[in-house]
Structures are given as C-alpha cells and as structure tokens.
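User: ABC transporter ATP-binding protein, Malikia granosa:
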Amino acid sequence: MSAAVLEVAGLVKRYGDKTALDGVDLEIRSGEMVALLGPNGAGKSTLMQLLTGLFVADQGSIRVLGHDMRSAAPRALASLGVVFQQFALDLDLSVRANLLFHTDLHGLPRPLALSRIAEGLAAVGLADDASRPVRALSGGNRRKVELARAMLHRPRLLLMDEATVGLDPVSRRQLTQAVVDLCRQHGVAALWTTHLVDEVAQADRVLVLHRGQLRFDGDIPACLARTGAADLETAFLQLSGQAT
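Assistant: Predicted structure for ABC transporter ATP-binding protein:
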C-alpha cells in the first residue's frame, strides 16, 4: 500500500463548553478519494480549519507527508491544495491574473507558472478563458478555476471543503469527476467534505462524522453492510442519527 499522505490522530477541538471534534482519527493515502459526510454541525468545517492551519487543535496531531502541522506547519501546508466553501477569487481580475497571483505566492518562475496555468485550465476545460474576467464566468467555471489554482504548486493532498455549494447538478458532477481524475491519474490524495450523499458515489472510502466523532470509516459496501441499509443515503441517516 502507498504511504499515508494525511495522518490525523486523536484530534480534539473545543470552543468553550462545546466540543466540535472529539478524538478524530483518520488516514488518507496517495491516489485515494475520501468523502467526509456529515450533517450541519457535525464538525466538518472545524476539521478543515485545523487541516489548513487556520486553527490549532487542543489535542491530537495532524501530519501531511510526515510533517507535523504544529511544529512544521510551512512544510505541511506546502503539500496542500484547498478549494474552500466560499469563493476566493478576485472577480475583476482575469482568470490568468488570479492564477499568477497564486504562483507568485509559491515562488514559481514565471515561465513555469504560465505553463502550469495553461495546463491546469486545459485540464478543466477552460483553456480559452484565461483572459476573461472571473466575473464573466458561471459559478461552476469559477470553481473549476479554483481547482486549477489549488493544483498549480503540485500538492499531494487536495482538500475540497463543500466546494459544490450553490452549483447546479451538471457543474457538481463535472467538479467531482475532475477530482476523481486527479486521484486516479496523478495519485493525488483528496478529502471531499459534503452533506450531499450523491457526490460520494465514486469515493474509495466514506467517513461519517457526527457530533465531532467519526462514526464510520470504510467503503460504501461496508457502510451498507454495517447499517443494513439498501442505499447510502439511508445508511448516512442512520449513522448520523437522522433516521426516522
């Protein structure tokens, strides 16, 4: 088996008297697409904030390619690509200018940056849109630009934080497929957080988070077998305490 790209052990995060994450353990290996399902308030956003270094855990550890997020954050973060739930593009700049800003932050030489931008936009079907202002793009295409941006520095781990919120079904399907292709063809490890069960059909593993605890970690057939459910949506409702 390939080495773990992401290792999370005993992760705890509290906000006052509220425990948002309560001893979470998980591991993702190269080439895996792992879907993190959880209802609103399950702790998905808190986990993403810890994984991206925005917050610090009260207990536990996060390692990316062996680099500890607490003691070696720059090295850990250098291997991350992130598409956040909220759009994070300058609408008035062109697609290319937005991406060049990202490559400049990572110190990529301009010829290499332009080459990777052209390659990334072609991969998401936007090769002809580099000069267009982001404002002129649809919501789905803006997300594709953000995915291309997240991969410009060649991260080994891709975090997708409920990235399909507000997108139409076709755009959601295209974005999901683009991430699956990155995993299958380039060995990227991906963690896809969502509360939409239909988005995880192609995932190698499914994690179910509920009230800060990981209730399930395994593939879809194992999830159905454990719950006795006929479909993943019913299984998810059972594991997250929403079944009626």
